[in-house]
Amino acid sequence: MKDLRRYLVLKYIQYLVLSSSNAVSTFLGLLGSLYTIIILQSAKVSSKSTVVLISSLAMADTLVSVSIVSKMVVWTFDVGTSSTAFTSALLQNLLTANTHISCLLLSCVAFEAYLITFFPTESRHLRTVKNARLTSRIIWMLVIAECALFQTDDLLKASSTSAPTRSPCILLFHFSSTAAALLRSLSYFLGFLLRIVNVYIYYKIFFSMSNR
């Protein structure tokens, strides 16, 4: 569990402390996720709701791995301009999906820590493996849907220059563009809000433990 706590600290720094990811934090995050996945295969690790959330958090870094490998493939082989634009948008959206999934899962872990600290008995029926798995699935589905919307918007923007102005898809273009812009604004606001909430939660937990 000490290694898992260190991994959570690393992820909190990577996604909720740093304003943007860099090569060093990304590399350390990938190593930490790989190590965590190996640890979670051990029979010594009991199946708890927190462990389920941490496992899903570690699996989210597969999106980063796919993005890095795909970039290497694009650089290695001579890819056409249109394919490069599609790939570039997809890789960026995968990184965005990884960030959003990680932030939401870290917030779930923080909320669970808050319940354990202040409402250990009352919240026991909520802190189950089944609920943790359901929460992880919902987060993944929502963020994947977000990624699909962003990718659709990027594709329509890329093809709008060559498409006729009276194309039947013009309504779809305006809808996806508006929806993507609103979702990006909402994501930015929620990211800022989650940072504040996480700081508040661990502030309360820290002083609660200090008083004890």
UniProtKB/TrEMBL annotation:
Coiled coil located at which positions?
Answer: none
Which keywords does this Swiss-Prot/TrEMBL entry list?
G-protein coupled receptor, Glycoprotein, Membrane, Receptor, Transducer, Transmembrane, Transmembrane helix
Give every G-protein coupled receptors family 1 profile domain span. 32-212
Q: Which GO terms describe its molecular function?
A: G protein-coupled receptor activity
Q: Where does it sit, as one GO cellular component term?
A: plasma membrane
InterPro entries assigned to the protein according to its UniProt record, in alphabetical order: GPCR_Rhodpsn, GPCR_Rhodpsn_7TM
What are the TM regions of this chain, as residue ranges? 12-40, 52-77, 97-119, 181-203
Give membrane topology per the record.
Multi-pass membrane protein
Cell compartments where the protein resides? Membrane
Asked if the Swiss-Prot or TrEMBL record annotates the protein with the keyword Membrane, the reply is yes
* BP GO terms, sorted: phospholipase C-activating G protein-coupled receptor signaling pathway; positive regulation of Rho protein signal transduction
Read off the PANTHER family from this record: G-PROTEIN COUPLED RECEPTOR (PTHR24232), GENE 5127-RELATED (PTHR24232:SF83)
- This protein is called what? CXCR3 protein
Organism placement in taxonomy: Eukaryota, Metazoa, Chordata, Craniata, Vertebrata
